[in-house]
Amino acid sequence: MPVFNQEHLKQVRFKQLFNELGWDLPAQQQPYSVAVGNDTWQLDAVAVKKGVQVLQCRPDADGRLPDYATRQKIERKITPDVREHLIVFTDTAQTSQIWQWVSRLQGKTAQYREVNFRKGEAPELLAQKLSRLHFTLDEEELLTVLGVAQRLDDAAPREKVTKKFYGEFEKQRKAFAEFIDGIPLTGKDISEDQRWYTAVLIDRLMFLWFLQEKSFLDGKKDYLQSRLAGHLEAKLDVSFYKSFLAPLFFRGFAEERTAANRTSIEAAFGNVPYLNGGLFAQHQLEQRYGEALDVADAAFVKLFAFFDEWEWHLDERPLKSGKEINPDVLGYIFEKFVNQKQMGAYYTKEDITDYIGKNTIIPCLLAKVRTEHPTAFDNLAWPLLQHSGDTYIYPAMLKGMPPLPLGEGWG
Q: What is the pTM of this model?
């Protein structure tokens, strides 16, 4: 969890933010000046820890942030004076922040990594990254500049891992498509429908891999692997796809539980959740090719072995081994992999899904509790909501409105 007041991040109070993270006030009082072309940029020292500095770059005369190429030049110019650093670029209106990390490995070019944060967005993801820069008094005695620099590197966003995974994933995708039967070939190569159905199946399986990592599939973290192993040991004449996966998709996840079907579903698949969404509904390709569709067991043996090489996490934990996969990777793969025009599918970034989730899930949950447990809601939840003020209202929605008095605004 974040170990600082997130209002500091929203209100551009970086000195207070890093003070709560255990950093020290800098001795440098005058700003650093960096000339790039005809412009001069001013960078203020915000915090320091063992020689590693946090710098805030002032906007230009028009109040704007420097563009990406200029940000790189500013970073290169400041490096001789401040070798290890983190730069935050802000605009005058304080509506945009760009946090710039730079990874320097011996013998390799500098790797620039940036996180954008805009006013009104949820700060949780950036706050989680910054929380990794927290230092306690117990750490102080043995702390070195290298240790602080390593912590900076741990906190940096990791596009390299995503792209590495995608590069290897592409090979798996092409191999998987060749194991699909029941879709006619077009010439000597695999057909467009085979590529499309490969996307459908692997997208489902990657989603399930995250679920099983949290033990949401029958309480097991190896649910899919163990089911495949059991199928192979049984040496059935029917494929793993037909005997287990397709029924799991269309019954286990897509069929709403009733008194009549609950027992049979749990007997077949164990304790798996009903997922009320389109991902596990019958796809148009499945409707078109019907029973002719099949996938050889070897496809899943190969794909599951590849997935097992990586560490799957639902959070934004520090990346240590270079093999960690989080939902951002799934989004990147989805965006690169699917045929957007054909499927009408686009990846929605976490800031938008966070906004949608908070404004739909919370009201829906409260409404359901109020309907099913009115007494508990009125006696417990409602008094808390009455005193929550504007906690559940986004800053952008409050613009032009006076603050809500306690207890008002929820009726």
A: 0.53
Count of C-beta atoms within a 10 Å radius of residue 285: 19
Q: Are 71 and 100 in contact (CB under 8 A)?
A: yes
Packing angle, helices 192-213 and 327-337, rounded to 10: 170
**Which residues pair with residue 39 across a beta bridge?**
36
**411 residues of the chain, pLDDT tens digit each:** 457 888 888 899 999 999 999 999 998 888 999 999 889 999 999 999 998 999 999 999 999 999 888 998 999 999 988 888 999 999 999 999 999 888 765 555 667 778 888 887 777 767 878 888 888 888 888 888 888 888 887 766 655 566 677 778 888 888 999 999 999 876 667 788 898 899 889 889 988 998 998 899 999 999 999 999 999 999 999 999 999 999 999 999 999 999 999 999 999 999 999 987 788 999 999 999 999 999 999 999 999 999 998 888 765 444 455 676 776 666 656 655 554 444 455 556 555 666 777 778 878 888 888 899 989 888 888 888 777 766 666 555 555 555 555 444 444
Q: Tokens representing 285? A: 């390709």
In a 13 Å sphere around the CA of 318, the CA atoms on its Cβ side amount to: 13
Cβ-based neighbour number of residue 95 at 10 Å: 14
Helix H or strand E segment including 100: strand 96-103
- Cβ-based neighbours of 269, under 8 Å, separated by 6 or more: 218, 247, 248, 251, 252
Cβ atoms of 388 and 163 within 8 Å: the answer is no
Give per-residue burial for 345-377: e unless 16+ CB within 10 Å, then b. eebeebbeeeeeeeeeeeeeebeeeeeeeeeeb
For the chain, helix (H) and strand (E) counts, in that order, are 20, 10
- Torsions phi, psi of 45, nearest 5? -75, 125
Q: Which position has the token pair 């077009």?
A: 186
